[in-house]
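hey so u asked for the seq, here:
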Amino acid sequence: MNPKPTSTPRSRGRPARSGPQIEDIRKHISACAMKLFREEGYAAISMRRLAGEAGCTVMTLYNYYDRKIDILRDLWAQIFAELFDELDPIAAGETEPIIRLNAIALAYVEFWLARRDRYFLVFMSSGIAQSDVSLFVRDDAVLRRFGILRDSVAEALGDSAGAGEIELKSQLLVCVLNGMAQNLITIGAYPWSGPKELVSVAVDGLVKA
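ran it, structure tokens below
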């Protein structure tokens, strides 16, 4: 069980704790935030409400996170780490490029379908400025993890593909996969084809175009 944070005097703006202690408390705070954001929505939760859930004062909360959006971005990073931790072994376990691309793309969509609460938290939270999103999507650590999709697209296209084509089709793949997930999750009453069939057609069109 994660410890609940207690008030700690600031030391140059940061709590006087060891690195592991700080990380444990941040994990506790982010876990409480995940619960509240999923149940009531990001915009509805104040830092005071979150402090109460986490068992600390608001001042203590600000020792670990400067703003509420920093907590949300931390949760986004955790969710994408979970996603790509699932995709990495899939990519490593398949040597045929097009089969690998299909498998990774399908796993990407199925991840969100199996974790709809996380999908809503990442893609549909209200009360967020575009600048807040931009800071996250430009983060080098996040971009490196998305490299698995770009590398898989490059291998599926073969040596004849130039850098511009690889980049364009990698972006297209992300747009298509996110669009699939959104439609399958938010417009469930429509009789969509299954994700396996949709991904197969999308990958086939992308590679052959």
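The first strand starts at residue 10 and ends at 11. Residues 26 and 64 are 7 Å apart (CA to CA).
lmk if thats what u needed
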